[in-house]
Amino acid sequence: MRILKVISWTILLAMIGLTAAAGSERNLFEAGGALWPDPWFRATLADAYFGFLIAYCWIAYRERTPVRRALWFGLVMTLGTIAVSAYLLIQLHRLPPGAPVEALLRRAPAVR
After folding, report:
1. Class of residue 16 by CB neighbours under 10 A (exposed 0-12, middle 13-18, buried 19+)
2. How far apart are alpha carbons 44 and 72 in whole angstroms?
3. What is the DSSP letter of 58?
4. Phi-psi group of 39: left, alpha or beta (phi > 0 → left; psi -120 to 50 → alpha; rest → beta)
5. How far apart are CA 1 and CA 100, in angstroms?
6. Interatomic CA distance for residues 11 and 31, integer angstroms
7. What confidence tens digit (pLDDT) does each residue in 87-101 have?
8. CA-based angle 61:64:70, to the nearest 5?
9. pTM here?
């Protein structure tokens, strides 16, 4: 589990740093559509969002309530890998000591 935590923290911090640096150089929404004509931009954007949808499927499976599913959908679709790595860190933190990695794949217990 330690390696998953290290990887998740590394990705989370790297993405926050890269996003902040990119945002300080150029506002994506004020780029005037300059990026869209580039086919590699469109392919990369589609690849990222398809990956987010796949990760969200795991999140939606694990979460029991429609409200939590909707919340995480919004977070994943707006923050992308930042939200996915944060979700994984939360789930890793909630695992009991000695729990197998497979426990991450199981549905969260029902809330009473």
Report:
1. middle
2. 22
3. H
4. alpha
5. 8
6. 26
7. 999 999 999 888 888
8. 80
9. 0.84
